[in-house]
SDR family oxidoreductase (Streptomyces venetus), 242 residues
Amino acid sequence: MDINNSVALVTGANRGLGRAFAQRLLERGARKVYATARRPETVDLPGVEVLPLDIADPASVRAAAEAAPDVSLLINNAGISTGTDLVTGSLDAVRHELETNMFGHLGMVREFAPALARNGGGAIVNVLSAMSWFGGKGANAYHLTKAAAWAMTNGVRLELAEQGTLVTAVHLGLADTDMAAGWPVDKIAPSDLADAALDGVEAGSAEVLADQWSRDVKSRLPLTPEEFNAAMDRALAALMTA
């Protein structure tokens, strides 16, 4: 699909990747951009149409779908990371991440799929992570939710193909946002990530590996678990000492 003249809705558009998506959509000629956030007053980007949205609240998701029936491009960007482990961490925190990062995205897909079909099929972008494929102490709940969201993305892609809706999974390592502020390593610029994702949509791509880190991690998936974990340990050590 063409980004030019599209009608897009971006979740979590008040900062970070979401704000970059909204800005690049406007700059690339989108006819309308719905910028959504749990606190809509924090959206400060000129030229967007602001909507309140909490993707973990089904009533809020339904209200957003009713308010934006002309959407042809859905950008599922909003997400959280609680820094929780699976065995010793708070189970409520794990559930909260799942409700947001997987069920929240799925709820958006379910509510907006009929509008996308009416508007010619359109496209959905699910912002995932290289952590769809690996975990680590202090981030295993996040890994679980992104792995689940990857599987969900692959499933809805098959289910929505008949109505002509493209579903694009976008994977990245670290972006230069508040969530990654504590990592003193190279990070992709939010605007570059947004461009990579939107280029993928225009090319009809089912998957976008937005940086070298995500490409390297995926290339290791054929390894055995032992080989994969050892390779990841080496890669993380090299990253932190670079």
User: Anything to note?
Assistant: The mean pLDDT is 94. The CA atoms of residues 39 and 150 lie 27 Å apart.
